Each structure stands twice: as structure tokens, then as C-alpha cells.
Amino acid sequence: MRVLIEKYKQHVFKVTYSVAKDVQEAEDLTQEAFIKMVDALPSYQSQGFKTWISRIAFNTAIDFYRKKKRRKEELTSYDEPMLRYPQEESAEKAMLKEERLVKVRQAIQDMPENYRAVVYAYYIKEQSYADIASELGLAEKTVEMRLYRARKWMRENWKEDEF
Fold it and tell me: What is the CA 31 to chain-centroid distance, rounded?
């Protein structure tokens, strides 16, 4: 095993680096690719080994890139609660925000039923996935998936100027 790793580690690193564009991430992905290679050795069918390990490395790096992109999108787009009042604001701004909150609550009521509770709990009550899951008796992954689908539904059905 060590001989294979020593022989192909530079090649696997180059493959993962071509996707990750970061030395540290490429090193981590190289290790992960070799772990996956060890797990997949029983299914190896004597095709070109270098091609086979390259495909494992490339798919590992692509999976990481997709996951990283998805996580970044979620963090930058949706991690902030929708409505948060600044410490000091005028009465007019507070009234406008309250009106907006009423409109948002009404829009949430117009959503498909299976999205309402998780959207309300996450954005209005500012609860975590774990809190929502325990309150609604769901798995955290179910809460995450419903929020993902609700966000997609909101992008397709809501117009920003409505609020």
C-alpha cells in the first residue's frame, strides 16, 4: 500500500490541486483520495491504475468543491435572520420594518404548508436546525432540506419589491 501511495502521491496531488487551487486543501484531498482508493480497491478491475486513481482524486476534489460552494452560498445568502433591528432607529423606520414583518409573516402563511413551520422558526424565531428539529419532531437533515427547498420556492415565487 505504501508503495502505491509513494508512487502516485505527486500525481494525485496535481489532480486535486487543479480543482482546489489551494495547497492545504489539495493535500487534504489527496489524503482523502487515497483513503477512498483503499476502500475501492476490491472493486478495481485491472484497468489503468493511474487513470483509476486519477478519477478517484478528481471526483473527490469535485465533491469537495461542490460542498464548499453550497456551504458558502448558504452562509452568505441565508445565515442572517431576515429581520434584525438596529439598536437605535427612528420611529418611522421601526414602523416600516414592522409593516414589512407583517407582510413577511403573511407571505409565510401563503407558502406551501410543509415549509411554513421551518421558515417561521428559522427566520422569525431565529432558531437553530437542532431546535427546530426537536420542536417539530423531525430529523435535522429534514429541517435543512425543507429550508433549502423553501428558499428555492421563495426565489421563484416572491418578488423583493413585494416587501
Answer: 23
